[in-house]
Amino acid sequence: MQENSSNKIYALVDCNAFFCSCEILFRPDLVGQPVGVLSNNDGCFVSRTKELKRLGVKMGQPYFKVKDLCEKNGVTVFSSNFSLYTNMSDRVMETLSEFTPNLEVYSVDEAFLDLSGFENHNINDYVKKIKTVVEKNTGIPVSIGVGPTKTLAKVANNLAKKSEKSQGIINVLEPRLRDVALKRTKIEDVWGIGKASSAKMKSLGIHNAFDFKDFKNDKLIQKIFTKVGLQRKEELSGCPRFELETRPKKKKQIMCSRTFSQGVFDIESLREGVAHYVSTASEKLRKQDSVCSSVEVFTRTSPFKNVSQYYGFDQRVILSGTSDTRKIIKYAFQALNKLFKAGFEYKKAGVRLTKITDKNQTQMSLFETPDSGDSERLMRAIDFINRKEGPETIKVAACGLKDKAIKLNRNFRSPRYVSGWNQIKKVL
DNA sequence: TCTGGGGTCCTAGGACCC
DNA sequence: TCTGGGGTCCTAGGACCC
Length: 428
Fold this sequence. Notes:
Radius of gyration: 24 Å
Strand order of the largest sheet: 5-6-1-7-8
Number of strands: 12
Strand content: 15-25%
Order of helices and strands: EHEEHHEHEEHEHEHHHHEHEEHEH
CATH class of one domain: Alpha Beta
Shape: globular
CATH superfamily of one domain: DNA polymerase, Y-family, little finger domain
CATH architecture of one domain: 2-Layer Sandwich
Structural class: alpha+beta
């Protein structure tokens, strides 16, 4: 295979310890300190500063297991504050979009930029400028990896985050530098190679990204790791196989689920939860102008607790696609009635909307009336008010008023600096 | 006491049709 | 009684990502 067969240039911009960085923005006293952000219910670590990583706290580690360690070492922990993070994410992406229209927002803290057309020697200055401007405009530190494919930009980015002397930027457009970078990248750190695949890779004698790139038997790779596995390999040798996706795609499924702060036994509490999750999910559905014709509901006991276990699941088909919260709740409740078994201590429940289609292409059903104009206007009004006045200003009565059982633990929540008017920081 | 939440893509295999 | 093959569509499950 020919290397550098294309002249594509991709940059991956990744925010460093993003959720932590957002929190630290409003707590400058914490710069350089061990800081972590916890998942819902203050369950696991989902973001860690490098000072916290150095203490040995792992991604996804339950907080209660390292609580002592944290207290001894003066670690500051925060409950997650997603409205802050999405708000900061929007600002970062907006700043990036000033540098190129060819931007793919890959996740809340990452974006790919297509910088094809730049001369190699100018690229470094340009990405340095990107880094400086993002940090100046938003206060969020970023790392940037540059390469001829998205997978190589990822490789470069990972190394940039680890290496002190790179100052947060690594460019592997040069083939010689690239081989060094590939040799330093463990196979399990390659984008798209997870636990299962890396174990198989090792049994083939592939231990780092360079071994993988150099592996001679493409047919075998395709057979074991499927089409995408082979595409990864080709990307590592400099041939682009994954294109930039600049337009956000419509979701094909929309999920909403939560772990409860305390176990619940009664179906009434589960109903409140399910009604809640449907409300959230169907709002997202309407936001992308879609309807769904299937709703799935599940609930489960805690797999970590020594109690009798149960996983209940049921799916309901909605004959005429809908995005009306009330209608979806009706079907979700049918599902819940079907799957609920008394006597179990439930710890989590969730809802998934599937068979999603464009609202203008809905199929007519003989047996069910489609959403009326009234329904659409009502939903639009609710969404408008909730966006303007805050989430759940208006909600369906089935969500309950007290939300007693399904409340989340958020003991370390920071003030809502940018998302609540009454909590804005005063500058005097 | 205490263990997150939300997605995508691929493949195999069954159902169904001719 | 038993027997063919090919195509399409759908779904479940696995693997992976952040």
